Model the fold of this input.
Amino acid sequence: MRGPGGVLYGATELYQIDTTNTETVLHNFAGVTDGIGPEGALLLSGGGLVGVTNFAPSSPFQGTAYKLDMGIHTFHAFGSGNDGKFPMPA
Amino acid sequence: MTAAGSFVYGTTQTGGTGHNGVVYQFDSTGAETILYNLTGGADGGEPTILSSDGVGNLYGTTVLGGTSTSCPVFTTAIGCGVVFSEHCEPDGNGPVHIYRRDRWGLPIREWYWTPQETSTAPLFMEAPVMERSSK
Done:
């Protein structure tokens, strides 16, 4: 997706491409607590970019939601209780 | 997954009380609220995409369930439950473009639906002006 200032963001690793087409890797998903398999576009919401991963190798294994602002913050791990499993990307 | 206001809305493929996926909302603090649990019956199961029309409605599609081999479309207010059908997707303001995709994401059947306005929400009636196969 295109974020503030015309910068492009995407995720397998999380990367940024600025207006001079220079790529910067912002985050590599280690799969311990931050999930693996980030998919789809990132959504601009609440001053950050929100995305999901489809799997998480640590419990409960069924996806995470994260926010990228001044750093990356995993704010929800799916699969505990009835909160759903395997979030679909944007 | 889609954003509207300060909220992010999305679906999960499985899980929830009906084990057929949920529609969820994250607020600005990251707190999750489950808006709807799909049952896998007439309301569908295994939701895929989720879209917002920007005026308070969510649109969704599912892989499973539904009441017809054609493709019922749905819209309802955010927070009031969402009804899903097969792979359907609103396509701008005109007739709704509906498709079924194969495992590689390629459309294999397509329909176009015509909006029917009601007093509460736009509904869509099937207008099978096109059905084709790409494979």
